[in-house]
Amino acid sequence: MEEEILGRSLRAFLSVSACLLVAAVGAGPAAADNAVQPYGANDAGGFRNVLPPGENGLDSLPQVLAFKASKTMPPHYADQQPLYENLLYGAPTLTDEQIPNYFKDATFGVPAGEIESQIEPRPGTTIIRDKAYGVPHIYGETRADTMFGAGYAGANDRLFLMDVLRHTGRAELASFLGGSNAAADASQWGFAPYTEADLEEQIKEMGTEHGAAGKQAVEDLDAYVEGINAYIGAANLDSKLKPAEYSFINKPMEPWKPTDIIAIASLIGGIFGKGGGNELNSALTMEAMVERMGEKAGKKAWEGFRSKNDPEAPTTISKPYPYETRSAFAKKGLALPEGGAFETPIASGSSIDADTGTTPGLNTIGGRLTRGLEEAGHASNWELVSKKNSADGHPIAVMGPQVGYYVPQILMEEDLHGPGIDARGAAFPGVNLYVELGHGRDYAWSATTATSDNVDTFAEVLCKDRFHYLYKGKCLAMEKLSKTESWVPNTIDQTPAGSQTLTAYRTVHGIVFARGKADGKKVAFVHARSTYFHEADSVIGFGQLNEPGVVTGVKGFKKAISNINFLFNWSYIDANHIAYALSGAMPQRARGTSPDFPILGTGQYDWQGYNPKTHDAEWLPFSKHPQAVDPDFLVSWNNKQAPEWAAADDKYDYGSIFRSQMIEDHIKQDLKGKAKMTIAQLVQAMEEPATEDLRADKVLPLLVKAIGKPKSSAVRKALNELKTWRSHGSHRRDMDRNGEDEETPAIELMDAWWPKLLEAEFKPTLGAKAYERLEGMLETGSYTGGSPQEPNFDDGWWSYVSKDLRDIYGPKPQAPWSRGYCGGGSKTKCAQVLEKSLKEAMKTTPAELYGGGDGACAANPQPSCFDANRPSETSGIALGAFPFQNRPTFQQVVTPTVKLGR
Predict the structure, then answer these.
(1) Is residue 299 part of a domain?
(2) 65-100: pLDDT as tens digits
(3) Does residue 712 sit within a domain?
(4) Is the confidence at residue 347, as pLDDT, over 70?
(5) Is 418 contained in some domain?
(6) What is the 3-state secondary structure (H, E, C) of 111-175?
């Protein structure tokens, strides 16, 4: 099978090289093809977007040298950055007429006279780029021609980044980019260790187990890979098409195989499309509270912090969708860890911990890439308003994914047209055979990471030795998965030559990640993920989102996303409707088992309908997934989906306060009375919260109430400063561009106070061990003290503070906690400890808050420096930091008014 796939790719690679030479050396624009459509064809209008820094990600060696010498950038490398950045300053007074200043036209095609280039990389495929922003508009006479064009254009704009992604997905980045990336490979191998045969099997099953749609997806995949290899063939003949980074690392541009695409899918889907899997640490957190407080009190305390189904949690929709509502302490198969557990090392070898002593840049992209994606993946948002609440009588939307900031961007834009395909929008390079987030003929869609629970922990009971386990009465051998990689120093990574062997062990449920004891037995803890061995399946649903014959309305939209097994909150809009639905393969746990803690893997407690040979199960029917059509408005900022849809075991922050409330507050304000909302107001409802501090907005009033009337004039002054900041909107922004946030002293005070007040409020009652365990389950929301990072206000203890203080001072919350924590539940003592923590914060210097870590703000220790968005470099051209905005990376503004026929 491997020879067949590689041979097919190489044949395509060789067959096009000769004809590509003519196109690559600039023989002039190709003649217009019959497949090319005029500007606006099959487009209902009302679509705009922005994707910073720019579409072009190709930097040839001369271009990199020119940038180093004079900061001259290649065309379209950063021309969307000003649109994106400047919305920060324009949002407070934004009008509908000003929206084109910040979001470009995203209509299908290129206006007359606006063609910058046109090529025909093979007969039947035409790629046109517009003068304005260099977006590739791809037309195919056949569907395969369109897919070929997507591969060719993707490689043109992001080839080196695509190579970084495929090597990361395969856990081979150190061998490609340098030894500094060895740890990133170990992490990926521990999560998705696939052999080449495993990847091939996924493609085979897609073509044989999913009917005509699956066969079409395999054909699309083949044509897409042919396009990538065609570009590599052209770049080998024309140095202007070759990314400079290959010269820096002294590596060739290797041909691609379809399995490379599946490897990238395992990386991207594994970061953005999963949730749960932290049952072991959750159990250890519970046990630490039991150890501190006793069994009954400790379990009740843990249930409070767990926030599994807090009735106060803000949700995207109001209708309940019960899922995983069973008690965490359900007894069947329960496998609570005894005496702790330890992680299993994945890597061994030489130089795997080498310290290069170099400044972070391309050499450490592996770790920064995965960390950045994991952090940013929980920052996407979308907001939609129904036609009855819209000023123009049609639905409106502002929506997009947050995937971090990269140079070039880790998303790319494309405009795809061919038989059965009409779509424009963004996609991840290397899997951009379809538009993944964008618009069709008369509809648009987007997604946020759902973080619902599709990963579980099974405790495999060991037999014979550490590498055998009991399953359905048999002692089975674990499958050993090993690979060895080596590296040598290169221009961008001077890590000494070395090697490492990556080893993982696989059972019928998944990958071993820890070992210990449970239920009195020696066990290996294993992650079971519903998308494991099914990374390829979602390609069917993504393809259908691009097909006007499938998505004719809300029903077709739901059909498409029901075929996506990764977990995402999907939004949809057309001229008449807005809709929401959650995608994903959601396991149905064995009856009577805990959805929160590890379960015995001996067979009788498997997921319902689980088949260990195919890694399939009886997934929760799509009709039972949270979904809605035409509510007054819809908002998702990675918040809880619906009442009774339990938070995943690793999600402790679905409490009474969540950042989505900041967007909802703006929308509700604009819809007061009989008011209708304009698209400019909806953009404002997104952009204003993009710089708001959630702690000041939602928690500060409770803190002020708790402290009461302090005797200290200094404390009164500090509280007044914080209250004034809140009355001005709680923003962290520099509107006059003088290099300093308008409310800097108050921001500094909140940044200093937050970690101190949390310790003062919770640590005395919880004790150090339980407090630290709880921190491990949910970051506190303290951003300062280390290297600069933008505050996204996703994970944090804001709900904990709110619930505890309302328990003590009132008004009583719904589902109050079992005890008070601040001051042991005493109003007087709580006020004292909070005031004391504030006094300690008032002594903290800006240098202590913002000057540490990598030293990026050591010379300028203040919030405006620390908060800034800092793009990660995946090229030889770098962009500096830009002012903080907590908003999607790619963003659409959608105002559809026309429904087209099919």
Answers:
(1) no
(2) 999 999 999 999 999 999 999 999 999 999 999 999
(3) yes
(4) no
(5) no
(6) CCCCEEEEEEEECCEEEEEECCCCCEEEEECCHHHHHHHHHHHHHHHHHHHHHHHHHHHCCCHHH
